[in-house]
Specification:
- There is one protein chain.
- By secondary structure, the protein is an alpha/beta fold.
- It has one domain (about 5-310): SGNH hydrolase (Rossmann fold).
- About 35% of the residues lie in helices and about 15% in strands.
- The protein has helices at about 10-25, 75-80, 90-95, 110-125, 160-165, 185-205, 220-225, 270-275, 290-300, 305-310, and strands at about 70-75, 100-105, 130-135, 140-145, 150-155, 175, 180-185, 210-215, 235-240, 245, 255.
- The strands form four sheets. Strands 2-1-3-8-9 form a five-stranded parallel sheet, sandwiched between helices. The protein has a two-stranded antiparallel ribbon with strand order 4-5.
- A hairpin with a 5-residue loop joins strand 10 (about 245) and strand 11.
- Helix 3 (about 90-95) crosses helix 9 (about 290-300).
- The radius of gyration is 20 Å and the shape is globular.
Length: about 325
């Protein structure tokens, strides 16, 4: 039987403090960005073709707008790890439409963690007219850590080997307040995914925000399509219902790009755009490049990009 008296109140306080501190970086000017993912310590970040640009709130790109038209949400794909921010799908949507676009997300973040940060961001910068959420794989789980870094998003499937290596213990085992070994189960990640969907549904209904969902992870997107047939919870969401995908690393889903006849292939691009067309860099485990982001911009923004816009893509003023 669990001994509640063994719960340390300072641990609860620490969890809340760490969570608040993590959220703050989306809402107030903070110290220079120091994430390992963006400082050459991750294969996907070891690039020399350009320099990343961060705003005063540690977001990748230009400064945040107040009362933005669009809020784009996602993980490393959306925030642009491995690409200059001009080549990311949110920036492409902004450049093509002229709308005010803010981007909230983090490398390796779970769906729940991203949505949690988005709510804090909206409380500070105002609610948008639309939310475009390119969701990561649903089995990532958001959990508290006893380390100083605070909360983590752990990829349940792909993170097992790294977790064992870093912690020298069995996957996802930890000791509870009674010093008994426990394990984070996959069902917990699924529960977080479902809870996040319901929260988004109610926020959209309460504030009249249009939400557009897609996932770069094809199995997760297939789940979204399937549950849309069995519940009304997604009625307020416009799902990208594309049937053709290009499948790459970790089953990355790129809509309407199932073969070499992609319409974008006929458009000439030069310079850095050409170098980063297919992949965000030339290392192993690369993130998808400009080509994929153009497709995501069309699907997420419900746009039809012109050939002239694509051929004119270039690095902006830095």
């Amino acid at each position: 039987m669990f001994n509640f008296e063994s719960v340390d109140p300072s641990y609860v306080s620490s969890c809340l403090k760490n969570l608040y501190q993590e959220e703050q970086r989306f809402t107030q000017a903070s110290k220079p960005y120091t994430s390992n993912f963006w400082q050459g310590k991750s294969p996907a970040a070891e690039v020399e073709l350009f320099k990343y640009r961060f705003n005063a709130h540690n977001g990748h790109g230009t400064e945040y707008y107040y009362d933005p038209d669009v809020l784009c949400l996602g993980c490393s794909v959306t925030v642009g790890q491995g690409l200059p921010h001009e080549f990311t799908w949110p920036k492409i949507v902004e450049s093509f439409t002229g709308l005010k676009v803010n981007v909230v997300g983090d490398s390796g973040a779970s769906i729940t963690r991203i949505w949690n940060a988005a709510q804090f961001h909206m409380a500070h910068f105002g609610r948008p007219q639309k939310i475009l959420f390119l969701m990561p794989n649903l089995e990532r789980i958001f959990y508290p850590s006893t380390r100083k870094e605070g909360w983590y998003s752990l990829d349940y499937l792909y993170g097992i080997k790294n977790y064992v290596k870093e912690n020298s213990q069995s996957p996802f085992f930890f000791k509870d307040f009674d010093q008994k070994k426990q394990m984070i189960v996959l069902e917990s990640a699924i529960e977080q995914f479902c809870l996040t969907l319901t929260q988004m549904y109610h926020v959209a209904k309460l504030f009249g925000i249009k939400i557009h969902l897609f996932s770069w992870h094809k199995p997760t997107h297939d789940v979204l399509l399937d549950i849309s047939k069995h519940t009304s919870i997604l009625d307020n969401f416009v799902l990208g219902l594309e049937s053709s995908f290009r499948i790459g690393h970790k089953q990355v889903a790129v809509p309407d790009c199932g073969d070499s006849n992609c319409v974008f292939n006929s458009v000439e691009v030069y310079g850095l755009a050409k170098r980063l067309w297919e992949w965000a860099d030339e290392k192993d485990f690369s993130h998808p490049g400009l080509h994929a982001h153009l497709h995501w911009a069309e699907v997420m923004g419900q746009l039809k990009l012109s050939d002239s816009f694509i051929s004119d893509i270039k690095i902006g003023e830095r």
